[in-house]
């Protein structure tokens, strides 16, 4: 408990702020432990085409907490980023996903799958980012033409020139880039002409309102046209209903990801689903 000590003395007296601070200190300690004990898991969410065929998956990080169970990334990625721990966790994610990609390449029923991996803009800022990624590629022998790295618009606000060179270096190896959460950042459309992107991912906040808001519908429609004009692939994320899927199809978007076609699941469950669909 803080006391009032007189003028010019800074002290915490707001119990809410103090509680939040203690929580994040506690969380940081837990995250460092999670890192040491490797309490991470990768879940995979299907990406499907018009025929309902799964063409790829997005790898999504989960934290298997000893008491709290499975924790979603929204609850801990921001703290991993602010503490700089994201680079190490991000490498774990990429390596795990690349091993999976290499393993799937050996099975006729899975060898067509692409794997998308989220990369934090902070990872991009590491001076040795490309070197470390290349080391992962060499260790895992992943077929890189089926690897997609998902980046967000904030990358281009923070490190545009740098990011472009690093992207080009990775693209030379066959890796593709997808722009996640398109339309939700605070950046100019200029980066679309400057950066070597392959795919736009329409953010779920737009997708989920295509039928209820004409403004949202207009944004999604324009994004699909924009992607096509720029020669980029487009995929809609957060598709939850048949009606949303039908609307997207009607407007020229042929790739989807969302609860409608499958929630994120562990690798065993994913493989079972994919095999059972084929028979
Ligand atoms: P994201 O990359 O945009 O991933 C999509 C998120 O939307 C996932 O949440 C997914 O479970 C959720 N989602 C997919 N379809 C639907 C749907 O139909 N309805 C609803 N309501 N939600 C849907 P998740 O797994 O909780 O991940 C949240 C965010 O955390 C991700 O958003 C990504 O930005 C970040 N993230 C996840 N894994 C990683 C990682 O390995 N590294 C980094 N840097 N960030 C990650
Ligand atoms: Mg993503
Ligand atoms: Mg997204
Ligand atoms: Mg996101």
TrEMBL record:
It is found in: Cell membrane. Coiled coil: none annotated. Signal peptide: none annotated. It comes from the Bacteria. Residues 24-278 form the EAL domain. This is cyclic-guanylate-specific phosphodiesterase. It comes from Vreelandella nanhaiensis.
